[in-house]
Amino acid sequence: MRTRRPIAVFQHTEVGAPGAAVPILESLGCQVELIRIMDGDAVPPDASRFGGLVFMGGNMSAGDPLPWIAAELALIRDADRRRIPVAGHCLGSQIIAVALGGAVRTLERPEIGWCEITADASPTASEWWGEHAGQVLPTFQWHADTFQPPAGAVSLATGVHCRNQAFVLQGIHLLIQSHLEMTPALVQLAVERNGHQMLRQNALANPATSDYLEVLRDLPRRTQQMHGLLQRLYSRWLA
Prior knowledge:
Blueprint: E1 7-11, H1 21-27, E2 32-36, E3 52-55, H2 67-81, E4 86-89, H3 91-99, E5 103-119, H4 123-129, E6 136-148, E7 154-159, E8 164-169, E9 173-176, H5 184-203, H6 219-237
Parallel strand pairs: 1-2, 1-3, 3-4, 4-9
Antiparallel strand pairs: 5-6, 5-7, 7-8, 8-9
């Protein structure tokens, strides 16, 4: 069943734009309300007028003492009390984890660029991934932190360099560490603005970071693969 109430999508930075997330939600019959934290939009005081909340990425940490992070934590807890589903990408998933009883810590090494994850093959994971359950999946990553999900969360995917990749909580809340929403233009923007981080990790021979010269290769095909995965996850999330 699709909700008639809008889905709120929270954008925290320019590079952390929602990318394919908005058109995918719209293709699934949703009205989307974009809340641009980066431009000073206020976090709503409660979640009652929304059918779901989606929190995008950003270069900050979920533990930073920023007023809007505190407001998002309160909003997520309010949504949880009302059984309104929330979903997060990268920083967004970490904020959700903290709000609902989990934690965030720094990874041993940053995970940047194209990294494979493995979708779980459990009955719950199969509900969310469909035909992709049990498969190795291509994803785009850019993070130095990882979330420890709240008690009772069910794993949907794991990774070699960052184990906690995707979880579902209480059957309705979706936490995704990777950036399945990336478009070719967003990948190019991320490299343009933050490519120095990738070069530094390449110099350190970090196995969790893509080669700088390889990361922009074949972007239309790679990002389209991820959009298919995200459409599947959002379809289940909205059910």
